[in-house]
Amino acid sequence: MTATATPEAPAEVDLGGEARARRTDRGFRALVTLAGLTVLIVLGLILVTTSVRAWPAFSEEGPFGFMFGTRWAPNDDVFGTFPMLYGTLVTSVIAMIIAVPVSIGIALFITEVAHRRARKYIVTVIDLLATVPSVVFGLVGVLVVVPAITPAYQWFADLVAPVPGLNAVFDETNTGRNYITASLVLAIMAIPIITSIAREVFATVPETDKQAAYALGATRWEMVKGAILPHSFGGLVGASMLGLGRAMGETIAVALVIGGSVSMSANLFEPGNTMAAIIAQQWGESSGLHTDALIAIGVELFAITVIINFLARVVVRRAEIKMKGAHS
Amino acid sequence: MTSLTTSTPPDLSGRNLSKRRAFANRTATLAIGLCVLVAALPLVLVAWEVLSRGSSAMSLDWFTEEIPRNYRTEGPGMGPAILSTLTITGMAALIAVPIGVFGAVYLNEYGKNKPLAKFIRTMADVMTGVPSIVMGLFIYVAYVVVIGEKLGFAGALALACLMLPIVIRSAEEMLRLVPDELRQASAGLGARKWRTTMTVVLPTASSGITSGALLAVARAAGETAPIIVTVGLTYIYKPDLFYGENTTLAAQIYRNATQPFDASQERAWGAALTLIAIVFLFTILSRIIASRFAIDKR
């Protein structure tokens, strides 16, 4: 091999080295391709192995009964997961209602309002928020926020008691471990993710569009409304979906603050559960079919989050292509 | 015509904006600023609570003693969890980083825009969104059930699955920054592609790759869900990841946070402070490496 590098080396050695080098090259190529394929292999294995293990639980209830059954009673071998699906959807959607506007605001502040030096500090704050482990959020949530916020919930329930509709959603409560607390924690955890993607999206808005808006006499807010937001809409939808996917899969923080009831309630101040959280909560005391059912919830969760993430990526990519087209 | 040249220049100061427009602009700016406060508040709350409540647990014994078996037992001891947090995430990095970097080499040096490479890229992005608890269940079914016991190594495998897509994507970004001239120069000197990759491309990108890997390690060190599913529980030092159940700081926080006893809650806060310190250490290290040894972007 070294012979190929020295010019005075005889030709025959050259050829021998050449053949070996080619073999090494091919071997290396196979090695890195295999490493790349690991992603697909692992994803495939997740789907197959967990589905096989979860099969007894699925067949006990039937796939439909498992997803939409409303009674979860492991002692009677009844496994309806709809209350958990409901909890997952409710908490993550409320979390997005809070987190998406806030994240867009932060991203706008960083890209349009803040001075260059302030920008660095704000980005650091958001990055720090992203590095806090979820279990720490759960710990602060359950030991600090829950006791402090329960009276506030009660006050709010009393406030809206005369309003029909609202009083069903925000009803009497005696616990701070509920859907809303879980949603708040999820919102805080989703903010860094959505903010970072929103910033990337805003960065692709052509400078000329912004300058044109200012030249027409627009105020900063009018420029944001007229130039930045229409341009970024697709990307922001994708960012929100990624945040949603992350919120649906969050386990430990939710397991600590959502309470752990397996019944559904329209009252957001009642305790509930989510698909991810119930796995963590009941894992230790489960066995047999109960374990299979928890794994089956994992399969369901895997399917939902993969679909949402895949769609989000497609939306973001399509928006990117559109924006690059506008740019050139 | 004369009127045009003699008229005063237009007022661009924005002072004569209509009240409504000026109000909308000011309200929007205020609201945007408030959003930053909304995000900063929880960070300050978490930092304050963890520091003030966790620091009382700190002592030399905290880092060396074994964990008390009873929730009610007062006193320190988190040594086994601290050690295992480091060994389990370290083992996970040993598995995920080489595979991830080689995967990135495939995507950037070989696959490029081929359909397979594009598909792997999309699926890696999708894999970053797979909930960590699902990774834990996967390793439980595919490894723990097969060998018949919960192990520290099983936790490392689950964390490796979580780190893999993050490492692949960040390493690919870094490989993309390596100037093509370097590859061409290497090829011009007669180096084969594998040799160019190993001796020119990867060393050039090494600081960026290291920084990305450290960030993935920081993320994995704080993971709880896959650990409680695959690793089990222990109170004593278990340096051998292939022998018996194990524990980590994150798992200890979860376990102690749910108990109504002061002693266990204090241990939860102490573990939280220790864990955050470890995670920040990795994050800061990653920052330093990224800024000190960045590739010149010319």
Question: In words, what does this structure look like?
Answer:
The complex is a heterodimer of chains A (328) and B (298). With 328 residues, chain A is mainly alpha-helical. Chain A folds into 2 domains: 64 residues; 258 residues, MetI-like (MetI-like fold, Orthogonal Bundle). Chain A is built from 11 helices and 2 strands, in the order αββαααααααααα. In chain A, strands 1-2 form a two-stranded antiparallel ribbon. In chain A, strand 1 and strand 2 form a beta hairpin. In chain A, helix 8 packs antiparallel against helix 11. Chain A is flat, with a radius of gyration of 26 Å. Chain A starts with 10 loop residues before the first helix and ends with a helix. Chain B is mainly alpha-helical. Chain B has one domain: MetI-like (MetI-like fold, Orthogonal Bundle). In chain B, helix 4 packs across helix 11, helix 5 packs across helix 7 and helix 9 runs antiparallel to helix 12. Chain B is flat and about 85 Å long.
Describe the sheet with the most strands of chain A. 2 strands, antiparallel
DSSP helix fraction of chain A: over 70%
Indicate the multimeric state: heterodimer
Radius of gyration of chain A: 26 Å
Tell me, rounded to a whole number, the average pLDDT of chain A.
88
CATH class of the largest domain in chain A: Mainly Alpha
CATH-assigned fold name of the largest domain in chain A = MetI-like fold
User: Order of strands in the sheet with the most strands of chain A?
Assistant: 1-2
CATH class of chain B: Mainly Alpha
Give the CA-CA distance, first to last residue of chain A. 47 Å
- The helix/strand series of chain B, from N terminus to C terminus, equals HHHHHHHHHHHH
Helicity range of chain B: over 70%
Strand content of chain A: under 5%
Instruction: Give the helix/strand class of chain B.
Output: mainly alpha
Query: How confident overall, as mean pLDDT of chain B?
Result: 90
Q: What would the CATH topology of chain B be?
A: MetI-like fold
